[in-house]
Design a protein that fits this description.
This protein is an alpha/beta fold. It has a single domain (36-403), classed as Pectate Lyase C-like, CATH 2.160.20.10. The protein contains 9 helices and 27 strands. The strands form 4 sheets. It has an 11-stranded parallel beta sheet. The chain has an 8-stranded parallel beta sheet with strand order 3-6-9-12-15-18-21-23. Helix 3 (66-71) links the parallel strand 1 and strand 2 (80-84). The structure holds 2-acetamido-2-deoxy-beta-D-glucopyranose (5 copies). One 2-acetamido-2-deoxy-beta-D-glucopyranose is lined by residues 87-88, 119. The site of one 2-acetamido-2-deoxy-beta-D-glucopyranose has 8 residues, from helix 4.
Length: 405
């Protein structure tokens, strides 16, 4: 008994010593195995261990489709990386797991979204093959949400009533140098998402989102950060209920319709900062052939409900922007703009699209001063968790953002 106890003690001691030893060895080999996102993306080396490779043609690949790789991930909280080799992938993606997921697009120009070589393509609007309308989510190239219900747009001022007991979805989704292209039509022909992002936290770096209507949807409890990305559209192409921060990106106007932003506010027990914040970005006609046709015609946004909140800060606006800035949205004779409730704003925007007297004449755009902009001036001030606690930004890749790489 006594002896057994002793040997058990010794075993514990010995095992923890061994553990310590292994720990040291593991740390050393991790240090030797230098991980570099850019090298992983350009050469397929120095990837995080366990990186899954996708390609329809390359024999290094573990999966031929991206969804195949996503489906192989364990339903746990482990961090997982998928390297997508250059190519066009015609598929819809659906990320439901809660553990961190990183999608890396193969590229040797990791700081330039115009040179992305991974393109995920799907052609759909909110109609099924008999022409019956279906929820917008079914049109999306990429869906990130824990359940179908949490991703539904729904209708009415409050949208789809997501069951309160729905769990939170992905806590840290990241995509680098991937284009999401909804090729349904070459003009607004109903909602056609490139992205649907709800009940999740995620960052998109050097990505492209291409469609004409409702290109990017950030739904309920969605926190999405975009960095040096391209978002192209015509009608309401940044819309949703959640919180989106678009940093140093390009908004490409492929036509005008509705507004660039169409947000729906929600009542919560805490003060929420739900809305879309477009910062240090450029708003321009998609190309010089379309520019003359849309000159002075594109509105910055319109209120999807009266609690719409959007701010363009330090943005360049080309001559495409409507002199009134934002516009109202009148449905069955009822104007949705509500003074003191709706916030459709600009802060230090500049360029030919900014017409100060036009903004005043339009009567719905708020030009913020420094003090009024202050509560919205950083991602830390707007991204909240489910309980409304601010500063929910751990999932943002600050190394990339700070270094500009
Ligand atoms: C992907 O599609 C684009 C546009 O259709 C085409 O220009 C490009 O060559 C395709 N890339 C590959 C690798 O097939
Ligand atoms: C995404 O996957 C989940 C789990 O399989 C499924 O319930 C949901 O319907 C899918 N979403 C879409 C839009 O297909
Ligand atoms: C310019 O953009 C419009 C809208 O996307 C498109 O229809 C047209 O083909 C583009 N023209 C050129 C020359 O790229
Ligand atoms: C939020 O509450 C206000 C005040 O009660 C109400 O007028 C508004 O319709 C509500 N909005 C939503 C989206 O429920
Ligand atoms: C600016 O707005 C004013 C007031 O609506 C309008 O008269 C003027 O033509 C606009 N200027 C330009 C360059 O569009």
């Amino acid at each position: 008994m006594q002896v057994e106890h002793c040997s058990a003690m010794f075993r514990v001691y010995f095992l923890s010593l061994l553990g310590l030893l292994f720990h040291t060895v593991a740390v050393h080999s991790a240090a030797l195995q230098h991980v570099s996102r850019q090298q992983c993306q350009s050469t397929g080396t120095h990837c995080p261990s366990g990186t899954i490779i996708v390609s329809a043609s390359d024999n290094r690949a573990h999966y031929a489709t991206i969804q195949g790789a996503l489906d192989s991930l364990p339903a746990d909280t482990s961090s997982q990386t998928i390297l997508i080799l250059a190519g066009n992938y015609t598929e819809q993606l659906n990320v439901t797991r809660s553990g961190p997921v990183t999608l890396l697009g193969q590229t040797s120009a990791s700081k330039d979204a115009t040179r992305n070589r991974v393109r995920i393509i799907w052609a759909a609007a909110n109609k099924d093959n008999t022409g019956q309308s279906v929820d917008n989510v079914f049109s999306s190239v990429l869906v990130v949400a824990p359940t179908l219900e949490s991703s539904l747009t729904g209708s009415g001022t409050t949208g789809y009533a997501v069951p309160a007991d729905t769990p939170f979805g992905n806590t840290d989704f990241r995509a680098y140098n991937v284009d999401f292209d909804n090729t349904w039509s070459e003009y607004s022909d109903g909602p056609a998402h490139a992205l649907s992002f709800s009940r999740a936290n995620g960052g998109f770096y050097y990505c492209g989102f291409y469609s004409y209507q409702d290109t990017v949807y950030v739904g309920k409890l969605g926190n999405a950060y975009f960095y040096k990305s391209i978002i192209a559209g015509q009608t309401d192409f940044l819309y949703g209920f959640g919180t989106a921060w678009i940093q140093s990106s390009e908004l490409q106007l492929r036509g005008c319709g509705g507004g660039i932003t169409a947000w729906k506010g929600s009542n919560t027990t805490f003060t929420n900062k739900y809305g879309v914040y477009i910062v240090d970005s450029n708003l321009r006609a998609a190309n010089s052939s379309i520019a003359p046709d849309i000159k002075g015609k594109c509105a910055l946004g319109r209120p999807w409900n009266s609690q719409h909140r959007s701010i363009f800060a330090h943005c360049y606006e080309d001559g495409t922007v409507d002199s009134s800035g934002y516009i109202d949205w009148v449905v069955s004779g009822v104007a949705r703009f509500e003074k003191g409730v709706t916030l459709m704003a600009e802060y230090q925007t500049y360029g030919p699209g900014f017409n100060e007297s036009g903004r005043v004449a339009g009567g719905v755009t708020t030009v913020l001063d420094k003090k009024a902009y202050e509560p919205y001036s950083t991602p830390q001030k707007v991204f909240q968790n489910q309980e409304g606690v601010l500063g929910n930004t751990k999932w943002i890749d600050w190394d990339t953002v700070k270094a500009g790489n």
